[in-house]
Specification:
The chain is mainly β. Helices cover 1% and strands 63% of the residues. The protein starts with a strand and ends in a 12-residue tail after the last helix.
Length: 598
């Protein structure tokens, strides 16, 4: 591991995508993202544009963060994360964040005032001159090891419904047994159309394994609007949940009543959900015919391997039927994707798509895709997509206050542990730093974005290495990033040694063998039919061979107990021999014993 002075630059990424259709229409969108550090702070830039025909939309945000406060300008959806519509107009955002608290102020000419404060599970927001003269939202919660309670008040609260009057929501949860109760009351006002006007709802749900229960009752008092039908729903369900090894099966039975004016409808139904894993294979199967809901059947089965994935999905809801088959094939950094979709809702239609993702020249990525659409007896149509991505470093005239990690994965041909010109780099290998994953490029290089100085865990995903190559050192380490410095951590690789052969003995199938280095077990093998065995790849060197204990009634040993392994494959034929005790151990004269008399 080595460190060097960090060059002042801005890590950024450019994404462009263009789509052509058969009718001559062309649309494209692009985005630019960047991240860097000022003295004592950092700069983030996000700029994007979507263009369809003659219309286009620009969105962008530049944010400067220093210590616990941030200042930004541009388009932001920040004001929309408290159950209100996003703010699309550009404005100025000020944010103060620290010790679990977040305080925000947002301003633009069409929105004279926005204020938000959050701490843990509590929040308070005020918004002026957006549809209403005054809008606010508040939330608070409290609890202990037995459970929690919470309350919400504002415009709106339940299901993100905009309202012109104050709404209230109360709720709570008990942890033993696991249960949840919620009381909702919403008076959405005359500006809200349909079933949510003057709504109240009470719901209770929970589980005490393996039993499940849920019920709700809701009523829409629409006497103020004769054009809208009054409606009431009551629902209850009981169920069982059976855990499986890496999966579960859930069954529910329900009863519901819906009443509209003078009409009353009773419904019964059930639901079955199966979720199961077998190694890399996964099955999800669901049949939902519960009352007061749309009947739906869904099946998904997939095999998700390292180099390829295959899945099948089918769904049916009312008159709509859907079927999807997908295949993903990976080779180093290149991804091939194939997908076929079919849909039937009065008229059968289907689409076939192929997409290729190919990184090249270290920082570039190209995507090519095409789709064919078939609409019953109508002529087929097509669509072609071309995408381009670029990772860049733009120089900026200020010093860094963060650290950065770079490195290389390469084949160490001269065994000096240092990369030399001409030594092959390994691409497509994952490296994990503090939860962030990057993949080595075509020359074996990798790099992470700038991070706060400190010590971080670093992991190499050894399963991504080419077969037969091993790291000469560890696959996990701790690295220390220093302010204003670029830290380098390389993984030199060497061809491994593979030991295989046969073990000659009656009933030699199922015998466990051990490979030891300095009396520590480094690999295991078990003999197959005919006594054949094969150890996994290990680093070249001197090793010991032994039998795992407790396999034979008599005392046995291997004909060979030491092996010097070199790069590549080696064969070794072993014989299992019964140990013979020396004569002096069978007929040994007892040693003299001296007794002291007191």
């Amino acid at each position: 591991m080595a460190s060097a002075q960090l060059n002042p630059d801005l890590l950024s990424r450019l994404e462009l995508e263009g789509i052509w259709a058969e009718n001559g229409a062309f649309r494209w969108h692009g985005s630019f993202w960047g991240d860097s550090s000022w003295p004592g702070g950092s700069l983030q830039i996000d700029l994007s544009r979507y263009d369809s025909g003659t219309e286009g939309l620009w969105r962008g945000l530049a944010m400067w963060q220093r210590d616990i406060w941030s200042l930004g300008f541009g388009n932001t959806d920040y004001a929309g994360n408290t159950l209100q519509e996003p703010v699309e107009e550009p404005g100025v955002l000020f944010r103060l964040q620290g010790a679990g608290k977040v305080t925000s102020l947002f301003w633009h000419p069409g929105l004279p005032g926005y204020f938000s404060y959050r701490k843990g599970g509590s929040a308070l927001t005020f918004l002026m001159a957006k549809k209403h003269d005054f809008w606010f939202y508040g939330r608070s919660e409290g609890g202990d090891e037995k459970g929690r309670v919470y309350g919400e008040v504002g415009m709106p609260v339940a299901w993100r419904i905009p309202s012109s009057t104050v709404s209230v929501r109360l709720g709570g949860q008990s942890r033993t047994p696991v249960s949840l109760w919620v009381l909702d009351w919403l008076q959405a006002g005359t500006e809200t159309k349909g079933r949510y006007e003057d709504l109240w709802r009470l719901s209770v749900s929970g589980q005490n394994r393996p039993f499940l229960f849920s019920l709700y009752s809701q009523y829409n008092d629409l006497a103020s609007d004769p054009a809208v039908v009054q409606e009431r729903e009551d629902y209850a369900a009981l169920g069982l949940n059976f855990p499986l090894e890496r999966g579960s099966v859930t069954f529910r039975w329900g009863y519901g009543v819906r009443q509209e004016e003078e009409e009353k409808e009773e419904q019964y139904g059930w639901e079955l959900v199966t979720n199961k894993y077998w190694g890399p294979a996964h099955l999800y199967l669901a049949h939902n015919q519960l009352p007061l809901s749309l009947p739906r059947d869904y099946l998904r089965f997939g095999f998700y391997g390292k180099s390829h994935s295959l899945w099948l999905a089918a769904a049916k809801q009312s008159e709509l039927k859907e079927l999807e088959i997908g295949l993903l094939y990976r080779r180093q950094n290149r991804n091939w994707e194939f997908e076929w979709q079919a849909q039937e809702n009065g008229q059968f239609s289907q689409a076939v798509g192929v997409k290729l993702t190919q990184p090249f020249a270290q920082r570039h990525k190209l995507q090519l895709g095409s789709k064919l659409f078939f609409h019953g007896e109508s002529p087929a149509t097509w669509e072609v997509t071309v995408g381009y991505g670029l990772n860049t470093k733009l120089p900026v005239p200020f010093l860094k206050t963060k650290g950065r990690l770079i490195g290389r994965i390469f084949v160490d041909e001269n065994h000096d542990g240092i990369w030399q010109e001409g030594e092959k780099g390994i691409s497509g290998c994952g490296i994990l730093l503090d939860g962030e994953l990057v993949v080595s490029q075509s020359d074996g290089q990798y790099e992470f974005g700038s991070m706060t100085p400190g010590e971080y865990p670093l992991f190499l995903q050894a399963q991504d290495l080419p077969l037969g190559f091993l790291p000469k050192a560890v696959t996990a380490a701790f690295v220390r990033l220093m302010a204003g410095e670029e830290t380098s951590f390389d993984w030199p690789l060497t061809p491994g040694a593979l030991l295989k052969g046969t073990l000659s003995v009656s009933g030699s199938q199922g015998v466990y063998l051990l490979l030891l280095k300095d009396n520590k077990v480094v690999a295991r093998a078990v003999t197959a039919s005919g006594g054949s065995f094969q150890f996994p790849y290990v680093l070249p060197g001197k090793y010991q061979l032994a039998l795992a204990g407790g396999q034979f009634a008599a005392s046995y040993r291997l004909s060979e107990t030491e092996a010097t392994l070199k790069e590549g494959e080696q064969e070794l034929n072993l014989v299992l021999k019964e140990e013979e005790k020396p004569v002096e151990q069978l007929f040994r004269t007892p040693e003299w014993q001296v007794f002291e008399v007191h």
